[in-house]
Design goal:
Blueprint (H helix, E strand, L loop, with lengths): L1 E3 L6 H5 L8 E5 L2 E7 L2 E7 L4 E4 L3 H11 L6 H6 L6 H9 L10 H10 L5 H15 L2 E3 L4 E3 L4 H4 L4 H5 L7 H12 L13 H8 L7 H10 L11 H10 L13 H16 L1
Antiparallel strand pairs: 1-5, 2-3, 3-4, 4-5, 6-7
Helix pairs in contact: 4-13, 5-11, 10-11
Length: 272
Amino acid sequence: MTISINDDFDLDKIIGSGQCFRPCKICDFPKTYRFVYGTHILYIIQTDKNTYDISCTEDEWNNIWNTYFDLSRNYGDIRKSIPTNDTYMFESAVDGKGIRILRQDKWEMLISFIISQRKSIPAIRSCIEKLCSKYGTKLSTDKEDIFLFPTAQQLMNASENDLAACGLGYRVGYILDAVRKVYFKEIDLEEIDNLSDEDLFNELTCVRGVGKKVANCIMLFAYNRIGRAPVDVWIARVIDEFYDGKDPFDMYGENAGIMQQYVFYHIQNRHR
């Protein structure tokens, strides 16, 4: 099936923006990308500037992937709303043009961002792939074999040693706490989607290892709370160096999370 996307949409930048750890480019010629959402696997090939071949049906695209890629939001207009006197934000948005905030699986984001603490992006990806291959369900497509992200049920019998072997380090206890809370429904990740931002934040931080930054990441990348702007060491450095210690994201209100992604991508790009 062929689709057209006429708004900002750059798959390389989306994958490299630090918000997702399993999507990847699996082929350079033609450029082929793979995304996983729950039990759904999408292969997408860019065939022209705004045209893509996708591996799913029209119904699946409309009901799952359209929401996943946040295609109902006009990112071009949001970029154009940045005042030119906010020089660093303006430059970041130019550099990050094409990034979109993915609406990812809630359980996967909870575990992934617990794992993400004090780890580089390649290290996070490595841990998650080990976790998937050890505990996740194996699916075969016409391109590859892939392991889905393990469910709470699949992780319930995981031992501390087995999880540690996936490179999780001190985060093992946090992962086990999240597994038990979700499995025994002490926290219902779907039900809390109906809460206000403040209440959702409070619910997420009841899980061990979920502090302010991790909770805001989960809210932004799983619950589509676009007004949340997580602050890690990179973002804190930008705030100190370019904004005299004053958080610049507040002025962008409901689009703060998009600005955070532009800035994060920009500073990572400069660092590389």
